[in-house]
Amino acid sequence: MSTPRPPSLENKLRQFRVDAGLTQQGLAEKVGVTRKTINTVENSIFIPSTVLSLKLARALNTDVHSLFQLPDILE
């Protein structure tokens, strides 16, 4: 029997970061995390905490809902 996977997020972090003209390192420095953390969030390997999500949204001048959304249909 397989282990159920946690629900994924629709993730637009990379799009917002690139549109803002930031590198992964630049965004990481703005929010106080490592470049690797930004990379794993962008690649949906890591689901960010509420606090990190709020920091990312603030750094990119947007809201959390614009960056991350639950898919309409959960598997």
TrEMBL record:
Signal peptide per UniProt: none
The keyword DNA-binding is annotated on this UniProt entry: yes
GO terms assigned for molecular function: DNA binding
Listed transmembrane segments: none
SMART domains: HTH_XRE
UniProt keywords, alphabetically: DNA-binding
Keyword DNA-binding included in the entry's annotation: yes
Pfam family, one: HTH_3
Occurrences of domain HTH cro/C1-type (ranges): 13-67
Protein name: Transcriptional regulator
Source organism per UniProt: Algimonas arctica
Organism phylogeny: Bacteria, Pseudomonadati, Pseudomonadota, Alphaproteobacteria, Maricaulales
